[in-house]
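Hi there,

I know you've been waiting on this one. I reran it after we fixed the sequence typo, so this is the corrected version. Both the input and the resulting structure follow.
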Amino acid sequence: MVNNREQFEDEFFKYIEENTELYIERLAEAVAIQSVSSDLANHLNDIEDMMQWTKDHIKRLNGKATLLKNPASSPERALPPILIGEFMSDPKKKTVCVYGHLDVQPASKEDGWDTDPFVLTEKDGKLFGRGSTDDKGPALSWLWVVEAHQQLGIELPVNVKLIYEGMEVSQRCPELLTSWKESDDAMFYYTMIGHQYVENPLRLMINFSA
């Protein structure tokens, strides 16, 4: 049982350090999926694979995961689905809503990359790979924070709702938020975009746990 903020931080950072290699392996798996949204003719299946990969991880962590049809999708132009994930700890707790996207833009060594952009590569202590920072790495890190809570036997201090797009900023998320208006858990205390590092997931959880 974690009884104070200092102990909470100590336990978490120790766990994170011990599992760094696992997180890198998972990021490498995600980077290898060429979910290029600007070329749907060739990569729509890859984007769908990336969404399913993420959905499977949410389900593995006992979260609720639903793939929704993109409202703008049509028979003439199929678009990637939108993935909704939920970790509802307690309806009385505040809810954090996170937006992230799991697609990437085209990349190749001809564009100036020193290494294959779809093979996560460590160089000078840094990791290089398409989507590693925008936005697969940050977006997926929320799942690993939830997992850390579970492994350490610590209850989530907030409810977490995740909106993962397969087509960055498709302008369809407001429709989803509107559809939640009538629900009891639709009030979001805090909303953030995955790759904007104003608050990282771990720090946010620490602040709520204080």
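Quick highlight: Strands lie at 64-68, 82-87, 95-101, 121-123, 126-128, 159-165, 188-193.

Best,
R. S.
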